[in-house]
Design brief:
The chain is an alpha+beta fold. It has three helices and 17 strands. The strands form four sheets. The chain has a seven-stranded antiparallel sheet with strand order 3-4-15-12-17-10-7.
């Protein structure tokens, strides 16, 4: 495990595969060339059908603080929201194939989130729905504006932090989803739009 300590609760991870306490990650900040990342960002921004969905949280319906779309081959349900997939696009298929090569996993679906500015965010959660399996492999590709991404162990409260820049890839594998929460926090810093793709396999 190649971890450089930053403070008592947060660490940084070097590129490549890394065993972490109760989990496994792959980190590659230069997964896509800058020109590729910009091209994919512009294509997906214009091609996909972006929606602001309503989800069930703490017994009430709320609008998600971001836009999203679901593409691929499988229906997906989380937080009371059931999503029927839109077809794959050529850009999504190209990125998916590259993620499959690195992760040695076949993905049949992707959740694509659009963070419009620094006030759009993702709250603490785990991707642990039954249809993802006991040890899901989630491949996360970022395009556009860089955003802070944080994992937090549910027992030790240890944190792992990443700056998800355009063209970066983070893969969460092993039992990571059983023991680690993750989030994209709000920020007051001016932020342009960011697209994040999380490829997964739905059984």
């Amino acid at each position: 495990m190649n971890l450089d300590r930053v403070n008592k609760s947060a660490v940084k991870i070097s590129p490549g595969w890394c065993e972490i306490p109760d989990g496994k990650l792959f980190w590659q900040p230069d997964f896509l060339l800058p020109s590729q990342a910009e091209l994919y960002f512009q294509q997906l921004l214009s091609e996909l059908n972006w929606r602001q969905e309503t989800i069930r949280m703490f017994g009430r319906d709320v609008l998600q603080p971001r836009l999203q779309t679901w593409c691929g081959e499988a229906v997906y349900t989380y937080s009371g929201l059931t999503m029927t997939p839109a077809p794959w696009t050529p850009a999504l298929l190209a990125i998916k194939a590259a993620c499959e090569d690195i992760s040695s996993t076949r993905f049949n679906s992707v959740l694509v989130n659009l963070y419009r500015d620094g006030q759009d965010y993702m709250g603490w959660h785990r991707d642990n729905e039954p249809e993802l399996g006991e040890q899901p492999v989630i491949a996360s590709v970022s395009l556009g504006e860089a955003r802070r991404f944080v994992l937090k162990h549910i027992k030790s409260k240890q944190k792992l932090e990443f700056n998800l820049s355009s063209g970066s890839l983070l893969v969460m594998a092993g039992v990571t989803q059983q023991y680690w929460l993750h989030s994209v926090p709000k920020t007051r810093c001016p932020k342009a739009a960011r697209i994040n793709l999380t490829f997964r396999h739905i059984s």
